[in-house]
């Protein structure tokens, strides 16, 4: 199964809650170049995970969603009467059954930008193929599927909806000087891609009296509780949302969906358990998509090779509804430019287009990959035009370590970093000079080979996260985090943090997450923020617990757990609740060198090597960090080389299955990977971490694109289109037009 490779490490970590197996040596280089480590017992998958679909009780009803087969059409007929009478069918819901439902929430990240909340079921018009029109609830999935065939649904084409809104603009500095040395232009389209979790979306709603428990494969259980409760007019206390084991999410499970609302509503109305699970094809069609922006940049260097001006624009084509975080990529893409560089002047505009297409939401990176790829491509192109080495142009333009905290032209504050050190380390670790010489030799021998560099920044979240600690009467420590997990190894990392901070044996610590009834509030797993913000919340809770213990004992020094518990026995349990807010955002950074070889006969690209230096600040668990790098790299590689959702002019998804949509497999992974790190200190959060979860999707595709352009430079200097398929590369080598 090709889809398994990019998550195999995450799954292994999910099932590995054994503290002792982890490398605790955080000394420099301790985790470099190590292959994925197996436990001594050899167990890679133990089958102990429990996902939403594993929890469906006997007798539960099954929901199947009837979806529009066409886009941009007026509904002329919708007759559910035969379906409603079909064997096993308990209810069929259409828009008429929704009543006066409050809208789903959309994060108003950009002031005055239009908000278009979800349409739960189509009413009068369908915007996109795949849009939910009716929900059939039946005794079995098969009965519901059979009944769906009996729905009479007819439409008449109408005009596609649209409209373009400029949502953000940054204009800073003076226009480029007339005596500018070099001016280059880049156009880059970022194809729509599928977040593609191993576990498709799933919802299970269980009524319990007036209340409901909803098991949901989600990144944000608390927000899901609030959204679902508001839309269904339930008190938040009536609804408990639990994210059990979640088989990957990547932004695709960051917000609630129409199916979650329908499933919960049906369970509440019918007083019976109702479950829904997307099929793989349904997931391609109706889960949110990622990326989907067109971008352009014009970069001017002065005659000393410094960036005099950057003019850039993003045009995001968002789709027909906005999930909660629809504006996150839009806002990130614009605010991150010009990335790790200083620029004399910037002029950046971000436009948003609403169209009759499936919704766009965050996907691992969420605007960061788009910004990095555009900037890194422009910088490389300028280097070539000015006759500078890719390392040299970056060194001339990067923000020096002495300049932090650095106010960027888009109004951001970069907290810390050492970009020059990243480049130095990368140049040495990759044997760059030697590889360049080798490239020349191989080229002379007829090979098509390229080296591509990317330097990137990764903002890691603002706001708050929660933690709760309870010291139990038996001396055990029970921890809860609002930063729910999808296999990141949160339990392991946080128990490690608590063990270090409190001197308590790890086997006496339990870490819980993902249950809105256990912890009142939380954000979840998003935006590379769980360790920077979530672990900081846990650290602050631990410190407060220790103070509380000392106060209770009337001592100034902590006596150790065993003594404390014995002396406190009458006063246990002791609890602390923490809501931790960061004062500002931490910005991680990194540098990647990709080496590629392209087969001159077939255009097939082979990634020969990736050398990658990351700066994630203070590292909580080196092995889990490495897992994030590997997983992000696989997804970044997929986006650069093979992944693309294709929707034709009639709105039909042409890549609705794994027969048509390529995800990276083991054989596609780089032949050689060398990971290394530098550590710069951040004061942006209590723990001192910067994010790392999205890094692979940011730096790796930009480096791969630059490597492919470098490889093809003897043939063409045109901007390659993504993904870098063998046909595209072959056409570029043979000076043939690219297919659309
Ligand atoms: S793309 Mo992430 O779930 O913020």
Over the alpha carbons, how many angstroms does the gyration radius reach?
26 Å
Helix fraction, binned, reads 25-40%
Could you say which small molecules are bound to this protein? dioxosulfidomolybdenum(VI) ion
Strand composition percent: 15-25%
CATH class of the largest domain: Alpha Beta
Please give the number of β-strands: 27
The total count of helices amounts to 17
Q: Which fold name fills CATH's third level, the topology of the largest domain?
A: Aldehyde Oxidoreductase, domain 4
Give the overall pLDDT as a whole number: 92
Count the domains: 5
Span between N and C termini? 29 Å
Largest beta-sheet details:
7 strands, mixed
Structural class assignment:
alpha+beta
Q: Can you identify the CATH superfamily of the largest domain?
A: Aldehyde oxidase/xanthine dehydrogenase, molybdopterin binding domain
The 3D shape can be described as globular
What is the CATH architecture descriptor of the largest domain?
A: 2-Layer Sandwich
Poorly predicted tracts of residues: 1-39
Write out the strand line-up for the largest beta sheet, numbering strands in chain order. Answer: 3-5-1-13-10-11-12
């Amino acid at each position: 199964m090709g889809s398994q490779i990019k998550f195999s490490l995450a799954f292994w970590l999910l099932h590995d809650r054994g503290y002792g197996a982890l490398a605790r040596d955080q000394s420099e280089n301790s985790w470099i170049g190590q292959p994925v480590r197996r436990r001594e017992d050899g167990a890679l998958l133990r089958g102990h995970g429990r996902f939403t679909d594993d929890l469906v009780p006997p007798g539960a009803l099954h929901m199947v969603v009837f979806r529009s087969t066409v886009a941009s059409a007026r509904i002329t007929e919708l007759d559910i009467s035969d379906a409603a009478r079909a064997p096993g069918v308990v209810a069929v819901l259409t828009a008429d059954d929704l009543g006066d439902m409050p809208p789903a929430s959309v994060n108003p990240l950009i002031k005055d930008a239009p908000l278009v909340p979800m349409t739960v079921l189509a009413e009068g018009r369908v915007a996109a193929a795949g849009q939910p029109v009716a929900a059939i609830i039946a005794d079995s999935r098969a009965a519901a599927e059979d009944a769906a065939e009996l729905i009479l649904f007819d439409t008449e084409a109408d005009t596609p909806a649209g409209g373009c809104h400029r949502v953000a603009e940054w204009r800073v500095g003076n226009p480029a000087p007339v005596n500018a040395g070099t001016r280059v232009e880049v156009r880059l389209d970022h194809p729509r891609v599928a977040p593609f979790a191993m576990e498709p979306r799933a919802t299970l709603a269980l009524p319990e009296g007036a209340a409901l428990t909803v098991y949901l494969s989600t990144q944000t259980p608390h927000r899901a509780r609030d959204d679902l409760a508001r839309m269904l007019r339930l008190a938040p206390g009536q609804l408990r949302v639990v994210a059990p084991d979640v088989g990957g999410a990547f932004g695709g499970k960051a917000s609630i969906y129409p199916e979650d609302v329908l499933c919960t509503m049906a369970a509440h109305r019918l007083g019976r358990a109702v479950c829904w699970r997307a099929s793989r094809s349904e997931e391609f069609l109706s889960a949110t998509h990622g990326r989907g922006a067109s971008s352009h940049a014009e970069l001017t260097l002065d005659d000393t090779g410094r960036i005099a001006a950057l003019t850039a624009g993003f045009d995001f084509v968002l789709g027909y509804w906005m999930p909660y975080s629809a504006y996150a990529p839009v806002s990130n893409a614009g605010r991150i430019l010009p990335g790790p560089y200083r620029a004399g002047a910037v002029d950046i505009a971000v436009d948003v287009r609403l169209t009759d297409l499936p919704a766009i939401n965050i996907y691992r990176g969420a605007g960061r990959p788009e910004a990095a790829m555009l900037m890194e491509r422009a910088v490389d192109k300028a280097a070539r035009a000015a006759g500078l080495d890719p390392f040299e142009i970056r060194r001339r333009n990067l923000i020096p370590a002495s300049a932090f905290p650095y106010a960027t032209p888009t109004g951001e504050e970069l907290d810390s970093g050492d970009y020059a050190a990243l480049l130095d380390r990368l140049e040495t670790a990759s044997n760059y000079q030697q590889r360049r010489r080798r490239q020349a030799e191989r080229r002379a021998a007829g090979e098509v080979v390229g080296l591509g560099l990317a330097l990137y920044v990764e903002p890691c979240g603002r706001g708050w996260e929660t933690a709760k600690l309870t010291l139990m009467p038996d001396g055990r420590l029970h921890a809860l985090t609002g930063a729910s997990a999808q296999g990141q190894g949160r339990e392991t990392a946080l128990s490690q943090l608590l063990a270090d901070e409190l001197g308590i044996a790890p086997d006496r610590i339990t870490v819980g997450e993902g249950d809105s009834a256990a912890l009142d509030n939380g954000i979840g797993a998003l935006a590379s923020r769980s360790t920077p913000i979530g672990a900081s919340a846990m650290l602050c809770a631990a410190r407060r617990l220790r103070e509380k213990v000392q106060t209770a004992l009337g001592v100034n020094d902590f006596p150790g757990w065993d003594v404390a518990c014995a002396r406190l026995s009458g006063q246990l349990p002791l609890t602390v609740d923490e809501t931790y807010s960061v004062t500002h955002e931490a910005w991680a950074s990194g540098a990647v060198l990709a080496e590629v070889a392209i087969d001159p006969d077939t255009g097939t690209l082979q990634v020969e090597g990736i050398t990658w230096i990351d700066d994630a600040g203070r590292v909580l668990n080196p092995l889990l960090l490495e897992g994030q790098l590997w997983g992000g790299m696989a997804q970044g590689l997929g986006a650069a080389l093979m992944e693309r959702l294709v929707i034709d002019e009639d709105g039909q998804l042409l890549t609705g299955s794994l027969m048509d949509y390529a995800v990276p497999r083991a054989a596609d992974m780089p032949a050689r990977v060398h990971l290394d790190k530098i550590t710069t200190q951040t004061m942006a959060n209590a723990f001192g971490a910067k994010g790392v979860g999205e890094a692979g999707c940011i730096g790796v595709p930009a480096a791969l694109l630059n490597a492919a352009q470098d490889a093809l430079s003897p043939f063409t200097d045109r901007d390659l289109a993504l993904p870098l398929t063998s046909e595209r590369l072959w056409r570029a080598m043979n000076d043939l037009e690219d297919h659309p």
